[in-house]
Amino acid sequence: MIVVNRVEDIHEALHGVCLTIGNFDGVHMGHAKLLQRTRERAVATGLVSAALTFDPHPRRVLMGNAAPPAITMLEHKLECIEQSGIQVCVVLPFTRELAAREPEDFVREVLVGGLCLKHLVIGYDYAFGKGRRGNFEMLSAMGQKYGFGVERLDPVILNGAVVSSTRIRDMVQAGNVWDVRPLLGRFHQVRGLVVHGQKRGRKLGFPTANVGVRDELVPLSGVYAVWVEVDGILRPGVANIGKNPTFGDFDLSVEAHILDFKGKIYDQPIRVHFVQRIRSEKKFSGPEELITRIREDIGLARMILAAPDARP
Fold it and tell me: What GO terms describe the biological role, i.e. biological process, of this protein (predicted)?
């Protein structure tokens, strides 16, 4: 997949595109439907399949620190879009100036003039631009004027509710990581470099990889059965999210103990796939009680991860 940050970088190579546009936070099953339809339509009409998204997420620019955390960081988002078979992804830098831009100007200059738009696939509730006036009705009218088609897809419904980024975020923040898998099409994951921590786990006999998380969605505090991905290899593990109340810590951390693993992975990127929440975070009377409970957690994690449908 070709990734560009300016339409000028791809304009001369395009003879016409079938495009879908959105934030694609989480690249969930609703987004997968848009991407699949875009690719199928492009193949049927001889067009280039393309997706247009924004970075940072518009809410981060408009709401600052009050914005909800991202379900997928840009790197992960692009991987998921590429896996859908899309040929080109345009990642436009999102600014307040872009948010205030008249949608008619954006369509004329960026979509038609820059990307040679021939067909546009959008979600059931998509709108953009100043006052969110860039909706299906406006896009359809402009399509008639500039010669591109517009297709609006129905939402994906699962268990009686629309699959959305907001629903997924709420579920992960509530610790319902097992139930979120059908919505995402995969287990929720957190990525980051392994950073140096307090090394308490090693002293207790259970060394942990401390994940340096960024501005991304972290599940509810507690203990989880996880798969830890290192160098593309999945290994079973147990992860703790919390503040280590037994030792009086105050900073939230994500620590993963990789089962039957003795390698050194400091400063290496890892991915933690959250399969199921085992229990809430708890303050223990001391190291001995904590060690006993960790052993129980590991036993439960092995049972959970041994199930065929617990594989990523």
Answer: FAD biosynthetic process; FMN biosynthetic process; riboflavin biosynthetic process
